[in-house]
Amino acid sequence: MKHVIEVENGDAQVLTETGSGGLIGRGLLHDRPLAEYVEPAETPRFVVRNRKRGFVVEEADGGASDEPVETGQVAPDGDHSAAALVTDGRVLFAVGRADGDRTRSVPLDEVVDARTEAGLRNATLVLDTVAGAQYRFPSRGDLDAVREFVDAAAGVWSRAERHLEAAEETLDRVERAFEAGDVDVVLAAVGDVRATLDAARETAASLDGAAASVDDRIEAYRERLRAYERRAYAEQAEQARERGHTRWDDDAYETAADHFERAADSYAAALSVDADRPSDESIERRRTNLDAERERLAAAPLERAEQAVEVARSTDDTEVAVTWWVRALERYERLRALDWGRDDPRFDGDREAVRERLATVAEALVDARCERARRALDAADGAPPAAAAAACDRAESSLDAARAVARERVPDALDAVEDLDDRLAARRPDPSATDRDDTDDTDAATVVVPPEAADGDASDDGEGETEPRSETSVEPDGDAGTDGTETDDGAGSADSEWTLADDGTDDEWLSAERTATSTAADGSAAEAVADAVADASEAEVVADAADAADAVLGSGTGDGDRADDADGRDAEDDSNDGETSDERDGGDGVDTADGWTPAALAGLDTDGFRRVVAECFGATGWTVDAVDDAVDLRARAPGPADVRAGVLAVHADAASTVDGSAVERLAGAVERDGDLDAAVVVAGATLPRTARERAEDTGVAVVTPGALVDELDGHEVSVPRDGAER
């Protein structure tokens, strides 16, 4: 009997032997041949035999398992023998017995040591396992080749197993990171897992059995990995998309475009991963929405710049016009600088056309600032020296700003600036006159008088008498005359009735103030205040006049409160036939002189615009019920028909960001809400064409800025003072 047989090509005769050995020899196994124990993925390498001793299992020191080891000797009967079948995946110990063969399998990935021990007549193959068992198989053959193969194969299996365990641990971390929302950690780990699995496959490639076993496990790991990878890419796209919208809201257009590009790349990467979740249809739908958002982002800078031009052109208020021309210039500047140097610009607007538009806007800004200076100089004509100095300072500030823009962008406009400069130099009052005004001391209360009022009160040459608005003239020492006549004439009278107050702001009026006194019994000061408020055309002047009214009307009482008459109305109401100060100045408004305008709407913030829309609905008879997440306002129509509308209030700055999907979401919310019958969008500025077209398709009513202004004016809705331009 040959004791060590090297199996070649799996066709060794020993693999097929069964039965007893007859009168002289011994058979190998009783039940079935060794070949039937070989798995399809295994490749037999050696068969080691012994006749009588079989194999022995003992408990080794240092085992890593707490499971008890089944020890003892398993020997063949007299008609059979024992064999150790060595494959590329395990060592199978088989012992033939008439009452049934005995087998024990030892996977090579559990073998921690393979060695041989020499005896007097034979050697023993010894295998120590990780579970703490020791298998001993004696044989008279040469076991060196068997030991070398088992030792090398066990090393291959051990290294491959370590790679697989590392991959599984990393996959567990990937799962925890995904549940925590750390998709970047997930995607960074994906590469590590894939590299570890590749290393396991490469390690096992030298053994067919090991390679097949490792491949089965690797495929399970890869399927699990692909599931997390696809979901992580989809989530990464959503996060990048959200960051893009945040940066878009901050007007950081290039950064927003970068985030949207990363979102598009992540969606594409998600589709390239072979997994079921999210579905291809879901990802494609998100990509379509992202493409639409990228198109709107590309158009947003140009639309916002054009919106600023539209607002600037629509207002008759010089201050508002200057503010919006400045914004338009800044927005066109930003548009021109976007994607500078890129071969494939991502934003709408031809660079040459934007450059020409910049020149046009700059020229309009210079014109607006010159007009501001011109009005200041007109107000200075004929005004007392202190008031004239304030007006000239205002004109100088406007001209300096206009000159800076003209030099940089529209040199042709410098002539107009220089002409006004010459007029300013000729009109500026003698400093000694204003110094005399500064030395005047009065304890009387002060009333802010706007440039138009100052101009109207002064004579053409600045030296005539100044008509006070009240019937009581004011002496330089603050005592009121009692005869209703003027106390002084000429420039001296004008100088004594004006003082200069710095409002502490840059590029704004240094307000000229006229001094006046009042008593509780005399309503002339209140009338002067009312006239000043009625003449005011700027929001800041109106606010100052209202504050001054409180001070003047309260100065006649000991505790500073207004004195009430017998009918319970205050002195100011009496002096104006019961008309309240709010009614006289047009209510709390951005521009009480002009009433509602598109520029006034543009000056409102989100909350202010929503309040104005609610007031407008209320003024027209609707009842505003509530505000919730689905819509900004819920309004119920008057009359027997109970019609309820869901209202979306879009302030001016947000108008350019409203798209068709936003309109569809509003229409869908109204349709799903059983308490709403109609959807309405109230816009503070013109909506994009796509939004208007989608509104028409979905039956959503759109209230344009012009229509809203007409309704607000028609129903006398007050302009909120706190809605001043931002």
TrEMBL record:
Keywords: Coiled coil. Residues 454-465, 474-489, 570-580 have a biased composition (Acidic residues). Residues 604-709 form the Restriction endonuclease type IV Mrr domain. InterPro entries: Restrct_endonuc_IV_Mrr (IPR007560). Residues 211-238 form a coiled coil. Pfam families: Mrr_cat (PF04471). Residues 422-436, 559-569 have a biased composition (Basic and acidic residues). It comes from the Archaea. Residues 444-453, 515-528 have a biased composition (Low complexity). Transmembrane segments: none annotated. Residues 421-528, 550-598 are annotated as: Disordered. This is Restriction endonuclease type IV Mrr domain-containing protein.
